Amino acid sequence: MNFIKKLIGTLATDEVALLPSGKLFLTRLPRLPKGELECLYNDAYASIRQTTSPYYYQLCITRVFQEGEADADGSLDGESDDDADFEDHDTPRSINDSSASKDEWTFPIVQELAIQYQERSNGVRAITWVDLNGDEGDQFEFRVDEDVHLSEVDLFVDAVYRSIYELRFQQSSRGIAREELEEFVYETPVESLAAFR
């Protein structure tokens, strides 16, 4: 990716942090008829992107295709000639404004998402956040693959809190101590969802 950036110059959006592999799930309350757990992407990566709007970041979950695998358009390896579906996701919108293409979900990083990192007793490491457009109790969950180093997860989680800080205070988070970001940390999982994980 760095090689491509050097060839074409600085992109309109830059990745601030990256979790290179994991799975994306939508979790629901057990009492709902839709099912408790739905796997949206079996192989994906998570990134935080800085947009062209100052102090505005997005959480992006991108599907990874295996060699020879067709995407939702039927083209191989995620290549598509159709740019008609292109949407500009670089401008701030309402907090309920997440979007999903066939191969990527994007979410504005705002405090209302209640983004949190969880290490569960069964060894699962997950980044979770509220589905602002879904039913009550719906959450997205990015389960980090076990081969991803803990230091990468820590950097990613720190970048989430810094993104929220910058949006709220409209200033850079450079030089801000970790203690100043504590107000954005959600440590208590939603109990109604934790029971079935």
Automatic annotation (TrEMBL):
InterPro entries: Vid27, Vid27_N
Limits of the Vid27 N-terminal domain: 1-184
Compositional bias ranges of the Acidic residues kind: 71-88
Pfam families assigned to the protein according to its UniProt record, in alphabetical order: VID27_N
Any GO CC annotation of this UniProt entry: cytoplasm
Positions of region (Disordered): 71-100
Name of the protein described by the UniProt record: VID27-domain-containing protein
